[in-house]
Amino acid sequence: MKTLLILIFLATTHSAFSQNNSSCISKTYQDSLFKAYSKRAHQFAFNDKEWLQTYDSLIAICPNIAEAYQARALAYIALRAPEKLFQNIDKAVELDQQRWLPYRGYLHCIFAQNYEKAIADFEEAEKLMPNAFTMDHSFSFFIAMAYTGLGNYEKAETYFLKDIATQKRGEGRNDIHYNTLLYFGIMHYLNNELDRAEGRLIECLQLYEQHPTANYYMSLIKKATGDKQQIQYFEKARQYVQEGYKINEPNAWLVPYPRQVTLADLGITAEQN
User: Fold this and answer.
1) Window from 9-13, 30-34, 157-161, 224-228 with minimum mean pLDDT
2) Which of 15, 165, 238, 269 is the most buried (most CB within 10 A)?
3) What is the DSSP letter of 257?
4) What 3-state class would DSSP assign to 254?
5) Consecutive H or E run containing 99
6) Residue 19's pLDDT is what?
7) CA-based nearest residue to 241, from 221, 217, 261
8) pLDDT digits over 118-133, tens only?
9) Which has more confidence, 169 or 207?
10) What is the pLDDT of residue 22?
């Protein structure tokens, strides 16, 4: 029934708007059209064919709405179809570089783990919008993540420090994001700098005591140093995962973050959770 209704909606809307195709140059018109189609699309999950069908029809009417390509790309994230995902995100960037270039960098970094492309996008974005943020983090955070993924820990540390400096701009009264401290700690752990790793993870846990991934990496550090507290931190990680605590990043359920602790890491089956 829903499919039939959406087909009727799309046919009616297409007829109404196709007569005004020249209006697509108007941002006001684009926004109203996108709002109408998005309201319909959000009745469905990202990976439903009706979601794609809705935005396919919108793009057929008005092919220069950047947000339509980004919305269509969400389906290809859910479907794990990176080629089609980046075809759509590339088009969104072409139409509105300032808005969607950082988002593409985020997807290269977190979803595709194509770190060279992520660095290139964020370096260009930084030139356009110095000290700006996307997906709750500074551009430097994602560059640091990318260099960590490439094993260039010296560069990663430089950009984690830039990320912290960016967060402290202005009055500097805000806490540093706990996931900056988490990944800074993980970077030191991967570089076998266990004391420095532990220091950053302690800072992270002071802000978010129930962070499952931070507790898990603390257990790894304690294990590496022969400290019996490893069991305590491991059990905390298990407990907090089972209580529903998460990494708390936008869309992390759809785009898991690198090295995020998993149920398998903690020896938990789906039935136990």
Assistant:
1) 9-13
2) 238
3) P
4) coil
5) helix 97-106
6) 43
7) 261
8) 999 999 999 999 999 9
9) 207
10) 60
Q: Of the candidates 79, 113, 90, 40, which has an alpha carbon nearest to the alpha carbon of residue 254?
A: 79
48: which DSSP letter?
A: S
Tell me how crowded residue 131 is: count the other CB atoms within 10 A of its CB.
13
Task: Give bridge partners of residue 137 from the DSSP assignment.
Answer: 134
Percentage of residues in the chain with pLDDT exceeding 90?
82
Burial (CB < 10 A; 0-12, 13-18, 19+), residue 163, is: buried
Can you tell me the distance from the alpha carbon of 162 to that of 119, in angstroms, rounded to the nearest whole number?
14
Beta bridge partners, 133, equal 138
Q: What is the pLDDT of residue 74?
A: 94
Say whether 138 sits in a helix, a strand or coil.
Answer: strand
pTM for the complete prediction? 0.90
Place of tokens 């809307």: 13
Quote the CA–CA distance of 134 and 262 in Å, as a whole number: 25
Instruction: Collapse the DSSP code of 260 into the 3-class scheme (helix H, G, I; strand E, B; otherwise coil) and give the result.
Output: coil
SS3 state at 195: helix
Distance CA 142, CA 153 (A): 14
| 6 confidence band (pLDDT: 50, 70, 90) | very low
* Integer Cα distance of 33 and 50 in angstroms: 17
Place of tokens 């490439």: 150
Q: Is 128 helix (H, G, I), strand (E, B) or coil?
A: helix
Please give the Cα distance from 156 to 140 (Å, whole number): 9
CA 42 to chain centre: 20
